[in-house]
Design a protein that fits this description.
3 helices; globular; 30% helix; 3 strands; three-stranded mixed β-sheet
C-alpha cells in the first residue's frame, strides 16, 4: 500500500528551526518540505528547499515502511527540492548538521 493522498497538516512562516522540529510528532512519521534560509560559509545569503522524511524510532514499523516506500513517488511530484534529509530522532535534526548538508 503506497500513500496516495497528502494532507497538509501545518504551514508556518515562523522560520525558527527549533519551533519547527518541536512540532514533529514523537510517535508518527511525516514528510516535510522546509524552505531554509541561511548564511553560507563564504558569507552569502542562501536558501534551500529541504525534503525531510521524519520517521522516529518510536513510530510503528508498518508506518515507517509505508513512508519509506512512498517517499520517491512523492519527491518526484515536488518541484524545487534541493536537499533530501532523513531523520529518526531529534538528535538528527540539529541545525548545524542540516546546514552542513545544505552548504555544499
Amino acid at each position: 500500500h503506497a500513500l496516495t493522498e497528502g494532507i497538509v497538516e501545518t504551514t508556518s512562516n515562523d522560520g525558527n528551526w527549533d519551533n519547527f522540529t518541536g512540532q514533529l510528532p514523537a510517535q508518527g512519521c511525516r514528510y516535510v518540505v522546509y524552505d531554509l534560509s541561511f548564511t553560507s560559509e563564504d558569507g552569502g545569503e542562501r536558501s534551500k528547499i529541504l525534503f525531510i522524511v521524519w520517521a522516529p524510532d518510536s513510530a510503528k514499523i508498518k508506518e515507517k515502511m509505508l513512508y519509506a516506500s512512498s517517499k520517491d513517488a512523492l519527491k518526484k511530484e515536488l518541484s524545487g527540492v534541493q536537499v533530501e534529509y532523513q531523520a529518526t530522532g531529534p538528535d538528527e535534526l540539529e541545525v548545524g548538521d542540516i546546514l552542513a548538508k545544505c552548504d555544499r
